[in-house]
Amino acid sequence: MTKVSRKTDLFLLRMENLFGRKIIYTSVAKVDEDNVVEVVKKLNEQNLKNVSEMEYLYNYFRGKQDILDRQKTFNDYINNRITNNIAKSIVDFKTAYLVGDAIKYSSNDQENADGVDQLNDYCRLEGKETIDYDLVEWMNIVGTSYRLILPKNEVVEEDESPFYIATLDPRQTLVAYTTQIPHKPKVVFYKTVDQTEEETITTYSVYADGKYFRIANDALVETQEYTLRTLPIIEYPKGKARIGAFESVIRLLNAINTLDSNRLDGVEQAIQSLLVLVNCKMPENMNASAIREMGLVELVSNESLKADIKQISTNLDQSNTQTLKEDLLQAVRTIVCMPNTNQGGYGGDNGLAVVYRNGWEGAYESAMTDQKNMDIAEYASIRLMLEICERVGSLDVPMKAINIDYTRQHYENLATKSQVLISMLNNDKIHPKVAYEASGLFYDPNKKYLEGMEWLNDHQGTQTTEIRSDSQLGNEDSGNEPRTEEPYTGAATEEER
Question: Beta partners for 432?
Fold first, then answer.
């Protein structure tokens, strides 16, 4: 039996009861030079609990988990602390599944396709793919994350991005919303700490009400105009409750750690079992420690009182313990919507059967939920990037022309998706654009549709004839009659028009 100390018990009680991060609101009508320092102080006080929980969750993700503080009352010399860092595997899987490939932007129409491609190039030059991964990783760890987008002050070349993109540490960042509906961002800031030999300087970079404020050690040291319509720090919450990917199963993860630690304790205690001396009188210079060091003891007995030494050991039932562990692991996978990659297959399984049986469908639906939550913040980021590009004159694309594309799982069941596309394209009552979107073959169906129509219009002459001739030649070689219908052009008939 194990027992944790009162100090550790209170710590676990406080940190195991995690229910997501609190949304911070402010009722301040206007933030200016006179009240910005006081406003930041009050917001930090409201956010103190969030920061404490984020610190705990981040350390848990790194492997600094509750089992490391375990204390035992009996046999405390055998006290293994085993950490199964399942929390990290949950975060790694969910992050890679959602943004393992880069988030791309596509256009709804051909007119803005080149401009959207240019925006993708700007994001690629700024390393947005890696920044997106860091952003979603923080979101899965602590339940929310923050993106910073700022215009470059220096003159940029024509092929360079006019803006910076960065992922901020959520423990040092805050977005406070207005108490009025709709709850729009009112005050945003991030904190930096500079440690020198003489002093520690804590600096806040604050944006609110068209101003930039810099506060150093509770003193306002700089004020500038901020003329962009969107605040430069954008929050990416993981749902309304802002619950991290493994936060709801921390008690189960702690139970698995405790179970494995006790299993190893049981093995070690079986090896280091207690000795019982029966009818033995120990010499004055002999004790239990000396027996362990020597590894033997000389017994003296007579016919009436036989001397004996026995070991007391109780072996842990490892099979039942493993069953309990598998049950806990399955509960974790079910709650966090993580597939079971160790489950074997069955005869006659097709691809979809494996997807549904092993939990991949749940993982997909969970990722779709995260994707919808991200879309709101991602469009705010796009709006800010387009505003910066418009101001420097490098790009002019309307918001409504941009789609957000998550490039995962578009290469599964290629044969089925291709057949769906072909069947729908051969149906005159289905618009080709609908066929591209419904097939699920492309992560940017609008762009692929426009490229396909452009290629068809450019090659509707000689190359189309050559392709049909090759097809007819193959049919003749196989003994089949050649097809005589006209090639599909994607254009509506006169009757449909």
Answer: none
Same domain, yes or no: 289 and 265: no
pLDDT single digits (tens) 415-472? 777 888 888 888 888 888 888 877 777 767 777 777 788 788 877 754 544 444 444 4
- CA R_g for the chain: 33
Task: Let me know: does 367 contact 408? Beta carbons within 8 Å.
Answer: yes
Question: 17 and 163 share a domain?
Answer: yes
* Residue 295: DSSP 8-state: S
Phi, psi of 220 (to 5 degrees): -75, 120
Lowest-pLDDT choice from 73-77, 136-140, 176-180, 444-448: 73-77
Q: Is residue 389 part of a domain?
A: yes
Token pair for 327: 């049950």
403 exposure class (CB count in 10 Å sphere: 0-12, 13-18, 19+): middle
Tell me the C-alpha distance between 101 and 408, whole Å: 7
Q: Taking Cα atoms as reference points, which of 187, 185, 226, 219 lies closest to residue 203? A: 219
Calculate ∠ Cα 22-27-29, nearest 5°.
Answer: 145
Find the helix or strand (DSSP H, E) in which 42 lies: helix 36-46
Burial degree of 295 (CB within 10 A; 0-12, 13-18, 19+)? exposed
Instruction: Residue 245: name the closest of 375, 62, 96, 94 by CA.
Output: 94
Virtual CA dihedral for 216, 222, 224, 230, nearest 10 degrees?
0
409, 442, 462: which is the final residue of a domain?
409
Boundary (domain end) residue, out of 409, 440, 455:
409
Mention every residue, 6+ apart, whose C-beta is less than 8 A from residue 263.
316, 318, 321
Task: Give the rounded distance of the alpha carbon of 200 from its chain centre.
Answer: 33
202: buried, middle or exposed (CB in 10 Å: 19+, 13-18, 0-12)?
A: middle
**By three-state DSSP, how is residue 360 classified?**
helix
Residue 484 burial by Cβ neighbours in a 10 Å radius (0-12, 13-18, 19+) = exposed
Two tokens at 333? 């996978």
pLDDT number for residue 484: 44
Same domain, yes or no: 234 and 304: no
Give the Cα separation of 6 and 13 in Å (integer). 10
Query: In this structure, are 69 and 118 located in the same domain?
Result: yes
In a domain, 482, yes or no: no
Q: Are 205 and 212 in contact (CB under 8 A)?
A: yes
Question: pTM of the predicted model, to two decimals?
Answer: 0.75
Residues forming a β-bridge with 168: 146
> Which residues in 306-327 are b (16+ Cβ under 10 Å) and which e?
eeeeeeeeeeeeeeeeeeebee
Q: Is residue 378 part of a domain?
A: yes
* Distance separating alpha carbons of residues 108 and 20, to the nearest angstrom: 37
List the end-to-end C-alpha distance of the chain, in Å, as a whole number. Answer: 81
Whether 8 and 87 share a structural domain = yes
Q: How far apart are CA 148 and CA 128, in angstroms?
A: 12
Co-location of 288 and 252 in the same domain: no
Report yes or no on 441 lying in a domain.
no
